[in-house]
Design goal:
Number of strands: 16
Distance between the termini: 56 Å
Strand content: 25-35%
Largest sheet: 6 strands, antiparallel
Helix content: 10-25%
Radius of gyration: 33 Å
Order of helices and strands: HHEEEEEEEEEEEEHEEEE
């Protein structure tokens, strides 16, 4: 049997494997939650009035555009026949335009954890100088505003060299496939050496097959230390930039589901952004002012607990919605055309068929 079987089994990192670094006392292997940010240095800017749009109206949808949108919608559904498109008659069109308020809060959060990697000659700098605190570490890049991004940074003066806890500095581990033997039972004769009362030609009657995973050596390179025998342990800071987006769509009474409006855009009436926003007060539709006041308050309260707010942006759109009433085969039906993209919603479409996909 190969001597690899004498290697001790792998173990988890010892509790004392990681040192004690001032400012990082609560840091754990695997992470330990987000760190409260420092107090903001930038004063809150006074309220800024938003630009008044030149035109708050949306042109009425024409019948030709409504028919073309309906035709495109039906052709994209394999189970819909085009009878209502070709033979249906539009009887009336009702505008049901509505407003959407959107608040975006762009934050930076930081968390720390003890990490390790195979030691590849890096110097150990543990305690050679005082390690900078998590929020003092300079990120190598700052992403564009309102764009999600993540960066991991090794904290200076926290690195030390440790014995690999998996292989105990040997750099090799018993092969899991053959349990360190270098050979496995022959798959043809199931390890008996015989097949149909004859010697197994596959294994020459030995009942054993070479282990291809370790090339019959019985050992493989330790995956934890990549065969180096030593690990570099250090603290890393994970920096996450996150754009938190929340919408409020003013309810309309024409019957279109609000969820349908998530994927479309409208006419932009108002937009402003700054470090911390003031609620949008005095908007012609009171539901928008109420939504702005609620969401701005909620975001600033919620996200300052575990992250640093870098910028906020609020937008108001007027989303076009047209309810189209039409008749087909003597019965009345409805579909909706909505958004600048002229999307269509047609629940209870009257001419469906069963599709069979071969």
């Amino acid at each position: 049997m190969n001597g690899a079987a004498v290697y001790p089994p792998p173990t988890a990192p010892a509790a004392n494997m990681f040192g004690n670094v001032p400012g990082y006392e609560g840091t754990l292997a695997g992470g330990g939650g987000f760190l409260p940010p420092p107090m903001p240095m930038e004063p809150v800017a006074p309220p800024q009035p938003g630009p008044a749009p030149a035109d708050w109206s949306i042109p009425a949808l024409s019948e030709d555009v409504a028919r073309e949108a309906f035709k495109s919608f039906v052709s994209s559904n394999c189970c819909y026949s085009n009878g209502p498109v070709n033979d249906g008659v539009i009887t009336s069109m009702e505008p049901c335009n509505t407003y959407r308020y959107r608040l975006e809060t762009f934050t930076e959060s930081r968390s720390t954890e003890w990490a390790q990697k195979p030691h590849e000659g890096e110097p150990a700098d543990f305690y050679t100088q005082t390690a900078p605190r998590p929020w003092e570490i300079q990120a190598t890049m700052t992403p564009s505003l309102f764009t999600n991004h993540t960066e991991e940074i090794r904290v200076p003066y926290t690195s030390s060299i440790k014995e690999c806890h998996s292989c105990h500095s040997k750099g090799m581990m018993p092969c899991k496939e053959c349990h360190g033997d270098g050979f496995k039972p022959c798959w043809v004769c199931n390890g008996s050496g015989m097949k149909t009362d004859e010697h197994c030609s596959r294994c020459n009657a030995t009942g054993k097959d070479r282990c291809t995973m370790c090339d019959a050596k019985g050992t493989k390179k330790c995956e934890t230390c990549n065969g180096k025998g030593q690990l570099l342990t250090y603290i890393k800071v994970k920096v996450e930039w996150t754009n938190h987006v929340e919408d409020h769509v003013v309810a309309q009474n024409c019957g279109l589901k609000i969820d349908d409006l998530c994927s479309v855009s409208g006419k932009e009436l108002f937009k402003n952004n700054q470090y911390l926003l003031y609620p949008l007060l005095g908007f012609p539709h009171p539901a928008i002012s109420e939504a702005s006041e609620r969401l701005v308050r909620d975001h600033q309260s919620k996200y300052t607990q575990t992250s640093r707010i870098l910028q906020q942006r609020q937008t108001v759109e007027l989303i076009p919605i047209t309810k189209v009433n039409y008749k087909w085969k003597g019965d009345s039906h409805v579909y909706f055309v909505y958004g600048k993209e002229n999307q269509v919603s047609a629940d209870n479409y009257p001419a469906t068929c069963c599709c069979v996909i071969l």
